[in-house]
Amino acid sequence: MTAPRPGRPVRGSNTGRPLMAALDLFGRRWNLRIVWELRHGPVGFRALQQRCDDMSSSVLRQRLTELVDARIVAQEPDTAYALTELGRGAYLALRPLDRWSAAWAATLDEDGEH
């Protein structure tokens, strides 16, 4: 399976608008988690698998293949995986959502709904 690409039909968009392609890519289970876990630097396969709650190795390989194909992640010569420049940009785009989600959780806690 190849990664969603802008300009090609993706889930939710026959035109493959860039935002819809990104939402399709990051909406696939584990892809955002992998980006998040690579935010501090390169990580080997087994360590990444452990950081992702010991997901199956076949699913991790599939997701890494998609993210490498999308140029979000690169495999280093020592076989560790790291974010590319595009991947770091995706992580930076997620930071405001991380702050928002913390405020959301705090609000729910205050209301006794969490």
Structure explained in plain terms:
The protein is mainly alpha-helical and 114 residues long. The chain has one domain (18-110): Arc Repressor Mutant, subunit A, CATH 1.10.10. The chain contains five helices and two strands. The chain has helices at residues 18-27, 31-37, 45-51, 57-69, 85-110; strands at residues 73-75, 81-83. It has a two-stranded antiparallel sheet with strand order 1-2. A hairpin with a 5-residue loop joins strand 1 and strand 2 (81-83). The mean pLDDT is 92.
Q: In the CATH hierarchy, what is the superfamily?
A: Winged helix-like DNA-binding domain superfamily/Winged helix DNA-binding domain
Helical residues, percent? 55-70%
The third-level CATH topology is: Arc Repressor Mutant, subunit A
Oligomerization state: single chain
- What is the top-level CATH class? Mainly Alpha
Number of strand elements? 2
Low-confidence spans: pLDDT under 50, at least 5 residues? none
Q: Which shape, going by the Cα principal axes?
A: globular
List the secondary-structure elements in sequence, H or E: HHHHEEH
Radius of gyration: 16 Å
Major sheet attributes: 2 strands, antiparallel
How much strand?
5-15%
Report, as a whole number of angstroms, the end-to-end distance: 37 Å
Strand order of the largest sheet: 1-2
Quickly give the CATH architecture: Orthogonal Bundle
Secondary structure class reads: mainly alpha
Mean pLDDT metric: 92
Number of helices: 5
The total domain count is 1
